[in-house]
Amino acid sequence: MPLPALLTDFVSLLFPQLCLGCSDLLARGEDHICTSCRAQLPFTDYHLLPETENPLARRFWGKVPVQHALSYLRFLRRGRVQHLLHQLKYRNQPEIGRVLGCWYGAELARNGLLAHDVDLIAPVPLHPRKLAKRGYNQTDSFAQGLADSLQVPWQAEALRRLEHTVSQTRKNRVQRWENVAEVFAVAKPAEVAGKHVLVVDDVLTTGATLEACTLVLLAAGARAVSIATIACADR
Ligand SMILES: [Zn+2]
């Protein structure tokens, strides 16, 4: 056995790596999520559908022009995906985002999607106060994983979240949307002008956040905007 492998085994004996999906011991070569959990993930496979039949793309029809609307997994309450996202977001496990981003990017590239027509990947930014508290934006690692496997640059600071936000709870749907639209800005319009930007987020629920990001990017001169999330919830 070559020394590095021996060392790796020794280290994993001292510090066993557990699957972040099911807490079982990881086998050598498994990366944060075990093979069994990976096989059981609820993939949407939206990228295999014609765009007109993609239910996620349909959600944006009549609202904002989105080139591709993609989500890797279905978000089901109390399911494995919720557990993984909880670890990603609240348990200091940004590596989950990177692993899922790598897997998804490879799958998209295999199917000829995004790898050759996207110029820049932009994660939805966290509110600065939340970022300071959590220490990381859970969406950055997903952007990084996608960027690595699609061979496309990503930029954490392409989109900015503006400081002032009014409480969302007392507003109606239209007011809430207007409020969200005022929350984002493009940091340097010259860096997105003429580009096809892929905006990424962890979970898509109403889609309002991604709509707002799409609008500010198009207003700043982006040629096209696509969106990709780790998971999407049914409405
Ligand atoms: Zn597992």
From TrEMBL:
InterPro entries: ComF/GntX_DNA_util-trans (IPR051910), PRTase-like (IPR029057), PRTase_dom (IPR000836). It comes from the Bacteria. Pfam families: Pribosyltran. Signal peptide: none annotated. Residues 152-231 form the Phosphoribosyltransferase domain. Belongs to the ComF/GntX family. This is ComF family protein. It comes from Hymenobacter guriensis.
